[in-house]
User: Fold this.
Amino acid sequence: MSHAATTQNGSILQIALNLTLAALVSGIIVAGVYFWTAPIAAQQRIIQRDNSMKELVPGVTDFQPVKDHAGWFAAMKDGAPVAYVVPGEGIGYGGKIKMLVASDPTGALLGYKILSHNETPGLGDKTTQPKFRNQFVGKKVENLEVVKVHEDGKIDAITGVTISSRAVTKAVKESLTALNESILQRSAP
Amino acid sequence: MKDSLWSIFSKGILDENPIFRLALSLCPALAVTTSTLNALGMGLSVMFVITMNNLVVSLTRKVVNPTVRVPVYIMSIATIVTVVELVLEAFFPVVFQALGIYIALVVVFAIILARAEVFASKNGVVRSVLDGLGMGTGFLFAMLLIGVIREIFGSGTILGFPVFGAWYNPPLIIILAPGGFLLIGLLIGFFNIVAKAKKAKGANA
Assistant:
């Protein structure tokens, strides 16, 4: 009974028409769904970013964009900045790692949060977990060095995850350096 | 004589399990089974896509020209997968973040195209949907089995909760690709023995 209704070979025009029609229907469905979900997804991304910032700088709800630096935010409390959040990006084992890095005005890290990455599940993605992330809290630029054997004041690499550990640390360091150079130095006495 | 509806559904779970018996779609079985949660998410996504696609292919089997059926099937699969991806991104961002990079790959899973070609293009809607559900369940079962074993022995956890004490030092190889190959090979061997035993029993009875 297979293909009983479709005769052996239609003309090339029929075949082309068939394929075109299928593509048209697919296109309409995908476009329709995208039209419906895209604004919701965009909202979700903003909510996620705001949540990440609140997680990095607890107790602050007022984030003001920093002038002349796209994507940078100052966490304001009682009219004065208590922390800065800047985006960071590094190349890991599986491609780009995007994150937010938070620092207090003295240049000591409050932490980082990875927004998207492509690292090996079960290995590289351990860099998103608190056990590794908590090492960064309170560290300054000069402390940001990955070591395989524990050294006080440095960052311990995760076993078997050296590339991702280094990539994340390097990205954090670059963001913090940029922040130090442009804002923190200027406002220092 | 046609197979009963139950046998259409149940054959995908053991006798014709996509991964262990048909050895199709081994790529996701290797890549997305490092943790139970990933395996579960991927298994459910595939189950949904394969069932929906069997439905669409079965509904359109009389109007699609056989010469271009494969491109049409692939377009149908791609459309369903894209819709799943968009809906997950908008409404289930947590699941989307965990599975994001894998969902697009569902389009090229051999098992989905295989069921469209072998079954749904020749059978009615109810039978095709049951076939999709059965194959999807078999796929989910296989993914979960591999995922649970790899997570327990490779990370010492199950769904993120530790199962062993601190003394357990998980061997990395189980989480890495070679461990996946070894485990899938062993499991396929095991299910071959099961199938053989079942057949011998059937012959004796």
Notes: Strands of chain A lie at 62-65, 73-77, 80-91, 96-103, 109-116, 146-147, 155-156. The helical segments of chain A are 12-56, 130-133, 162-187. Chain A has three helices and seven strands.
